């Protein structure tokens, strides 16, 4: 698997999500939040594809080399099903909660259902860390550490600003953004560290 192939896969997913949103809007009379969810998913994948297009050549070549390893192929085979199930459960969870669930225990279970496939993602990531060479493991763990510390400090600063009434952000929205922000900063840190070590 190459970066270019990933880019085309992401574009295909984005187009499929936009098609679902259009079908929901014009053919199936879905509510606005359901259409918006699929537009958001499509937009996210489209932005990711565009970012892959502007990556430096040295990074694309490095990623292509890494994707060719046996550990990376195993990781990708484990992650894709988890991400697909995660996306479907996220949509289903939002849809069901918006329709109204009375029992608190059931509402909590439905709300956290999308986290379950992420446990398989976590398992695959830990297995990948154990299977790669020492230099790559060092790059990965440093990138994870940098991302964790930066996101923790940003979240803490956001909490202080919220307490001082400088900003007014819904706590649930802030919590939901932690994982994507962690993944994004990890990717940037990994790129910088790779350039430094290789």
Which helices and strands occur, and which strands form pairs?
Blueprint lengths: L2 H24 L5 H22 L3 H11 L2 H30 L4 H9 L2 H17 L2 H30 L7 H27 L1
Helix pairs in contact: 1-2, 2-4, 4-5, 4-6, 7-8
- In terms of structural class, how would the helical and strand content be classed? mainly alpha
Specify Rg, calculated over alpha carbons: 19 Å
Write down the overall geometry.
globular
Q: What portion of the residues fall into strands of 2 or more residues?
A: under 5%
Summarize the helix and strand pattern as letters: HHHHHHHH
Distance N terminus to C terminus?
Answer: 21 Å
Count structural domains.
3
Features:
single chain, about 200 residues, mainly alpha, 3 domains, about 0% strand
Structural notes for this entry:
The chain has 198 residues and is an all-alpha fold. The longest helix has 30 residues, at 70-99. The protein has 3 domains: 1-68; 79-132; 133-198. The chain has helices at residues 3-26, 32-53, 57-67, 70-99, 104-112, 115-131, 134-163, 171-197. The protein is built from 8 helices and no strands.
């Amino acid at each position: 698997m190459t970066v270019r192939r990933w880019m085309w896969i992401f574009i295909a997913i984005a187009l499929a999500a936009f098609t679902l949103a259009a079908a929901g809007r014009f053919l199936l009379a879905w509510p606005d939040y359901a259409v918006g969810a699929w537009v958001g998913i499509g937009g996210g994948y489209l932005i990711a594809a565009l970012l892959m297009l502007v990556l430096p050549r040295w990074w694309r070549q490095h990623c292509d080399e890494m994707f060719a390893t046996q550990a990376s192929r195993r990781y990708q085979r484990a992650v894709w099903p988890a991400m697909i199930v995660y996306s479907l459960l996220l949509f289903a969870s939002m849809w069901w909660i918006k329709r109204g669930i009375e029992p608190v225990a059931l509402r909590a279970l439905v709300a956290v259902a999308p986290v379950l496939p992420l446990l398989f993602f976590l398992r695959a990531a830990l297995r990948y860390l154990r299977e790669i060479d020492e230099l790559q493991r060092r790059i990965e763990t440093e990138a994870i550490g940098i991302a964790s510390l930066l996101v923790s400090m940003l979240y803490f600063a956001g909490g202080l600003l919220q307490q001082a009434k400088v900003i007014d952000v819904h706590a649930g929205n802030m919590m939901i953004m932690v994982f994507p922000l962690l993944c994004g900063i990890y990717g940037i840190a990994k790129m910088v560290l790779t350039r430094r070590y290789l």
